[in-house]
Amino acid sequence: MLSSPQVFGARWPAIRAAGHGIIGAVRSGPGPAVARLAPAGWWRYIGHHARNVANRVWHVGRFIGNLPSTEVGYTYAQAAGAHCKFAKGLMVVCTDAHPDFIPSGHGGLTIGSVYTTSDHTVDPSVLSHETKHADQNVLLALGDPVLYGLWYAAGAGSSRLLYHWRDARHDSQGRTCNDPNICYNFMEIWSGLHDGHYYH
Ligand SMILES: [Zn+2]
Q1: Is-contact 71 112, C-beta < 8 A?
Q2: 42 C-alpha vs ligand 1 centroid, how far in Å?
Q3: Residue ranges of the alpha helices (H) in the chain?
Q4: Long-range contact list for 81-88, CB < 8 A, 24+ apart?
Q5: How far is the CA of 188 from the centre of ligand 1 (A)?
Q6: Distance, CA 168 to ligand 1 centroid (Å)?
Q7: In the chain, what are the domain boundaries?
Q8: pTM
Q9: Residue 8 confidence (pLDDT)
Q10: Integer Cα distance of 128 and 105 in angstroms
Q11: Across the chain, which distance is largest between two alpha carbons, in Å?
């Protein structure tokens, strides 16, 4: 078997030095030359903000992916006389909708990236819950509101079956979820039953 110097000849010392340089850089982090280009503060900044950047990229992707549904949601909110504005995560929150437009037993509804509610204000836990429904609309329904409706109907149907079998659901603090369409609905569990205020 040939050794590396036999294969690479006169170039071997340079190749070996480059290899050690790469291994050394990987082991010890950015070397002095890189550190001069990007001071320590930058590396800390990048490390600290990489997650925020990833979140932001997802928020934009969700917003774009949801646009077909969002158009429907926005039209619905306008018909309900709600006032809309952008909220965290590029969600559109529409408040003061006419109560006739909100399904009974619900605080509001999310279509695409638009949350429409008859409430005057939206607390952060509700926004977090509704934002996860917007995630589902991209991830499960590819932004299609009709397909989302089918997923939700599947969740509600399986929840009713489980409710029939297990009855009301209790949390560790002794609160109760008693809506058969909601308590075992995987779409609502994903979004958070507590954040959705489904335990009473
Ligand atoms: Zn929900």
Answers
A1: yes
A2: 40
A3: 4-8, 12-28, 32-37, 40-65, 67-79, 124-139, 145-166, 186-191
A4: 82/116, 82/117, 84/114, 87/115, 87/122, 87/127, 88/124, 88/127, 88/131
A5: 5
A6: 17
A7: 66-191
A8: 0.75
A9: 74
A10: 19
A11: 84
Write the pLDDT tens digit of every residue in 86-115. 999 999 999 999 999 998 878 899 999 999
Length of the chain: 200
C-beta of residue 83 within 8 angstroms of C-beta of residue 106: no
Residue 49 tokens read as 């903000």
Q: In angstroms, rounded to a whole number, what is the distance separating the alpha carbons of residues 179 and 155? A: 13
Buried b (16+ CB within 10 A) or exposed e, 89-122: bbbbbbbebeeebbeeeebbbbbbbbbbbbeeeb
- Write out the two tokens for 68: 């077909």
CA of 132 to the centre of ligand 1 (A): 8
Which are the contacts of 120, defined by CB distance < 8 A and separation ≥ 6? 95, 96
